[in-house]
Amino acid sequence: MKQLLIALAALLSFGAQAAELDDAMNKAGCMACHSKDKKIVGPSFKDIAAKYKGQDVVAKLSEKVRKGGAGSFGPVPMAPTGADKISDADLKAAVESILKS
């Protein structure tokens, strides 16, 4: 019973963390151009994960979010997203989560 309660607490904690991350990504404007599984303006998170599967690209993609970029998924440029929109810690967590999609 104790193990079940511990597992339940861990799942609830994970759910709260995921909700906080979704909130941070919404506030940063990520969801205006991206979605989990469909291309909007930018690629879906699923497509990003597939492109970079098996690569250590968290720092590279975090830098791309900060500076903006174009050409990786087509001609539409991605605007830069500053630390005033999403913290470094939340950005790193978001990129890691996207790569696990």
TrEMBL record:
<feature type="domain" description="Cytochrome c">
    <location>
        <begin position="10"/>
        <end position="101"/>
    </location>
</feature>
<dbReference type="InterPro" id="IPR009056">
    <property type="entry name" value="Cyt_c-like_dom"/>
</dbReference>
<dbReference type="InterPro" id="IPR036909">
    <property type="entry name" value="Cyt_c-like_dom_sf"/>
</dbReference>
<dbReference type="InterPro" id="IPR002324">
    <property type="entry name" value="Cyt_c_ID"/>
</dbReference>
<keyword id="KW-0408">Iron</keyword>
<keyword id="KW-0249">Electron transport</keyword>
<keyword id="KW-0813">Transport</keyword>
<protein>
    <submittedName>
        <fullName>Cytochrome C</fullName>
    </submittedName>
</protein>
<keyword id="KW-0732">Signal</keyword>
<keyword id="KW-0479">Metal-binding</keyword>
<keyword id="KW-0349">Heme</keyword>
<dbReference type="Pfam" id="PF00034">
    <property type="entry name" value="Cytochrom_C"/>
</dbReference>
<feature type="signal peptide">
    <location>
        <begin position="1"/>
        <end position="18"/>
    </location>
</feature>
